[in-house]
Amino acid sequence: MNNENEANEQPFPDQKTFGTIQSPRGMHDILPEDQPYWECIRDVVRKEAAAYNFERIDTPILEATPLFTKGVGQGTDIVEKEMYSFKTKGGDALTMRPEGTASVVRAYLEHGMPNRPSPIKLYYIGPFFRHESPQKGRFRQFHQIGFEILNSASPASDAEIIQLTYGLLSKLKIKNITIQISSLGDNESRVPYLEKLRAYLREHAASLPADCKKKLRTRPLAIFDCKEEKALRVAQNAPKIIDNLSKASYTHFKQVLEMLDELELPYNVNPLLVRGLDYYTRTVFEIWKSNDEDGEARNIALGGGGRYDNLIQMLGGPVATPAGGVALGIERLVEMMKSEGVELKNTQKPTVFLAQLGFDAKKRSLKLFDELRKQGIIAVASFDRDSLKSQLKQADRYGVLYTLMLGQKELLDGRIILRDMATGSQEILKLANITKEIKDRLKKH
Ligand code: HAM
Question: Which residues form the pocket of ligand 1, taking CB atoms under 6 Å from any ligand atom?
Fold first, then answer.
């Protein structure tokens, strides 16, 4: 039995044996050991955003449901199956944001940003929610980094977003990535093309799986997202939007590719790329990383984006406003950094352990802690342990460089014992000078 004044020293049993409440399916804790990866990603994002002149925006987790039904599109998987939507006690229909672009557009219109010098360049980092079947790399709560350029029609903006994304991944030391790119055209290309595609799909309806066929009634482009073998064959031979672009969309796409060539960014024009959200026009792209899983190569999308020239008007904007952007999944980035063997030091590692014996020493230690903290030295103690042996065991577990020992006698003499944990050697030093002494020694490490 533990004394109520002491910390629990018993080995902790496996959680499964005592069964407390667990986190919801597909929603995970980000543990301290993973935080250096998250911090590194956030840090790189902040620096890149500043270098490209993107300003940070944070939007609410909850939005009015019609923002997404209108913005992302009625027939999409996100709206049809994956939104966490509910009615509040006050009767409002709200949804936990499944993506960030529609929210950024709402904020852009709500705060009169069209009146600011354009283009408006915004970025965000935060949690998003989709009720998907959880699997490797697919969660119900996940985090995205997003960049949006509003009110720019130039192909240079598309190229800039891809350049920024590619550079970010290089900075995170994620290798072997490919840029998959295509164009979904503008309204002028889309209307006659969809006629053609519908006619083709009607001809091949017999060889399509039932749930796929249902989707195609509202979103014929979804044929390119159907994963079943039979559908894949139909998709391979279907007319492609990229071969049916209007002159303006064709020129735009060609210019984007020329810019990527100039930037020496490797890309693959992929006519089957359609993206799962309805708001895209013209350029669409995804960043794929090929991952070997049990000997089977699988492509994982680290990020995706493109142009959405109609979205701002669709969400109530009074004038046509071209825009484009990208979002990357942070969990997937962390996984890739780990599988690439990127090692990150925990910068919060303590360097000093403060062992104290007796009440007066404990009291003085609190003050000493403050002095050390002011000098930027991370120190730890175990105030719940009274024996020196057990405190030194803790110091070993923390892996600190030095342990300071303060007892009644040292306190009376105005001294403190410093133990070098690597050599085990001990020195008695002046308590009044100890912070400076440690600082000097740490500098030499
Ligand atoms: P998205 O392709 O739906 O695009 O998501 C972008 C990235 O978020 C994906 O490539 C993936 O890395 C990550 N992601 C998506 N769903 C999940 C999930 N369930 N679990 C883990 N990671 C996930 C968008 O959201 C658009 N708003 C991107 C955009 C910005 N387009 C223009 N501007």
Answer: 99-101, 130, 132, 137-139, 142, 144, 146, 148, 276-277, 301-306, 308, 325-329, 331-332
Terminal CA-to-CA distance of the chain, rounded, Å?
42
- Work out the burial of residue 312: count CB atoms within 10 Å of its CB; fewer than 13 is exposed, 13-18 middle, 19 or more buried: buried
Of 183, 185, 168, 184, give the one whose Cα is nearest residue 287. Answer: 168
Domain boundary among the residues 319, 339, 359 is at 339
Q: The domain that contains 45 carries what CATH number? A: 3.30.930.10
Q: Is residue 215 part of a domain?
A: no
Q: What is the pLDDT of residue 6?
A: 62
- pLDDT tens by residue, 147-189: 999 999 999 999 999 999 999 999 999 999 999 999 999 999 9
SS3 state of residue 275: coil
Domain containing 153 equals 32-186+246-339
Q: How many CB atoms lie within 10 A of CB 130?
A: 20
Residues 266 and 406 in one domain: no
Helix or strand run (H / E) with residue 366 = helix 359-374
Structurally, how many domains does the chain consist of? 2
Split at pLDDT 50, 70, 90, the class of 2 is very low
Q: How far apart are CA 87 and CA 348, in angstroms?
A: 43
Question: Do 152 and 76 share a domain, yes or no?
Answer: yes
pTM assigned to the model? 0.92
pLDDT tens column, 19-48 = 789 999 999 999 999 999 999 999 999 999
From ligand 1's centre to the CA of 268, what distance in Å? 20
| Residue 316 near residue 109 (C-beta atoms within 8 A) | yes
CA separation for the pair 388, 382 (Å, rounded): 10
Residue-level length of the chain = 445
Six-digit token pair at 194? Answer: 């969809």
Expressed in angstroms and rounded, the spacing between residue 100 Cα and the centre of ligand 1 is 9
CA 272 distance to own-chain centroid: 26
Looking at the fold, whether 255 and 391 belong to one and the same domain comes out as no
The residues, ordered by sequence, that sit 6+ positions from 352 with a Cβ below 8 Å of its Cβ are: 372, 377, 378, 379, 380, 400, 401, 402, 403, 404, 438
Atom of ligand 1 nearest to the CA of 275: 2
